[in-house]
Amino acid sequence: MRKLIIPVLLALPLASGGCVAKAAWDVATLPVRAGSQVVDWTTTSQEESDRNYGRRVREQEAREGREHRAQEREERERCERERRRDCD
Question: Residues 6 or more apart from 78 whose CB is under 8 A from it?
Fold first, then answer.
């Protein structure tokens, strides 16, 4: 049992050294990653700009379509109320 414990204890610092180095690297690069994330949040890419423009155009077309249908419906109802023949 003692023969097994000694090699494990000797290898433990070597095995954990990579973890410590990775943690130190993560801490050292954290400000750079945080800064780049802020830049990503504050700027708009061309793809995002195109997507937002397309969304605005579709919403405008949908709004115009609803208004056009509402006008046609009002005109039909007015013609039916007045029983006009020239509305057809």
Answer: 87
> What's the predicted TM-score (pTM) here?
0.48
- Rounded Cα distance between 27 and 33, Å, is 10
Mean pLDDT by 10 residues, the chain (88 residues): 69 64 80 86 88 97 98 90 72
Calculate the CA 31 to chain-centre distance: 23
Give the CA distances from residue 19 to residues 25, 60, 87, 88, in Å, rounded to whole numbers and listed in that order: 10, 55, 82, 81
Determine the Cα–Cα distance for residues 13 and 5; give it in Å rounded to an integer.
14
